[in-house]
Amino acid sequence: MTANSLLPLYTERSDREGRDRLEILTALISAPFFDPIFRGVLVRVPQDHSVYQWGCVVGACERVRSGGTDLCSNHLRQWGKARESGTTRAEFLTAAQPLSRAEFEREGPCSICPDRPAEPRTDLRLCRAHYSSWKYYVAPRDSGADFEQWAAEQEPRGGYGNCKVTVCPGLAESPLGLCSWHWHRYKRDRRPGGAALPASWWQRYESQGRSVPVSCTDENAFRTWCARVDPAPRPGLVNLRGLRPLLRAEIQYTLFAHTQQDRHSIWRLDWIQKLVNLARERDAGSLTDLDLDDFPRFHTSIVKKMLHYLRLVYFTPSRRGTPGSSRPTTSASASLTGPATST
Ligand SMILES: [Zn+2]
Ligand SMILES: [Zn+2]
Ligand SMILES: [Zn+2]
Q1: Backbone angles phi, psi at 61, to 5 degrees
Q2: Measured between alpha carbons, how far is 268 from 2 in angstroms, rounded to an integer?
Q3: If residue 15 lies in a helix (H) or strand (E), which one and from where to where?
């Protein structure tokens, strides 16, 4: 079953009709009432958002909710034990200690080099080069060394550019050109195209100020992998890069429309991202192109709801009461942008 069967707006969708829909959505998305956080290609939702909240409910805990719960995995485990010993949930929430962001969720640039990503394994916010020199050279030799003063005296190093993965907003962590997450993913995918750095590249090249040669057995295969692979999962972020414009606008609009309901089902942002990834992989032009059989059941219900929100926009108000009639008009756009051009 394709999603199209749920949205009987256009029996045969021509480019013209796709454009009309995009015009309608674009007008709505740029209207003053539209929440600007849903306008971007990278939709960043705050941790305590009223509808898409994704943070653990323990006060000041920076971790992401686990599964379908409202606690992070650590607090969920603690709560399980506490409940067995008779603690109430309110008592548990009051006593629980907040946790800082998990290692794999930290990201951002080195505090010395704005173009290099910070090492995730430390809280020091240093790139690999600065982290190594502090940890293995400076700190062991001088136990009284002042970190702040040392950091202030360091020269920033040039970056490696953005991650080569088309949809990735991250910084590359090495001359190979991938961020840390995509580097691990690349290895897991058995390195299509065989992109590699020379052995001991750090000691032989970079630490001596020489440029590092990158080799590739099949550059096309590497590029194709970079163009296809999914973005890294990031808490609170829905990454819409690589989607066709109409589909992108449909997701932006429906994310907003869902926040306008008095009662709304739970839409987890990681589910939305999976939906987006699948649509991108299928090169879908619209939500109506998706095959609902591809999705787990809870995703299907989100897509159906999204189509419902879109139907309300695309249908003319005067025809809403007559379900038998499905001839589309562009009156929604007319009411926002002036009279529709003749069809
Ligand atoms: Zn927590
Ligand atoms: Zn640095
Ligand atoms: Zn990346």
Answers
A1: -70, 130
A2: 23
A3: helix 15-29
- Amino acid (1-letter code) at residue 269: L
- Ligand 2 center to residue 111 CA distance, Å? 7
Residue showing tokens 């946790």: 99
Q: Determine the Cα–Cα distance for residues 184 and 122; give it in Å rounded to an integer.
A: 18
Q: Which two tokens stand for residue 22?
A: 């995009």
Predicted TM-score of the model (pTM): 0.80
Which ligand is nearest the CA of 172, by number?
3
| 220-259 confidence digits (pLDDT tens) | 999 999 999 999 988 899 999 999 999 999 999 999 999 9
Which residues lie across from 78 on neighbouring strands? none
Report helix, strand or coil for 215.
strand
- Token reading at 143: 């136990």
**By three-state DSSP, how is residue 240 classified?**
coil
Q: Where are the domains of the chain?
A: 3-49+236-337, 56-101, 108-159, 163-233
CA distance 278 to 299: 11
| Distance from the alpha carbon of residue 42 to the mean position of ligand 2, in angstroms | 26
CA 139 to CA 134: how far, in whole Å? 6
DSSP secondary structure code for residue 189 in this structure: T
Q: How much distance in Å is there from the Cα of 295 to the middle of ligand 3?
A: 25
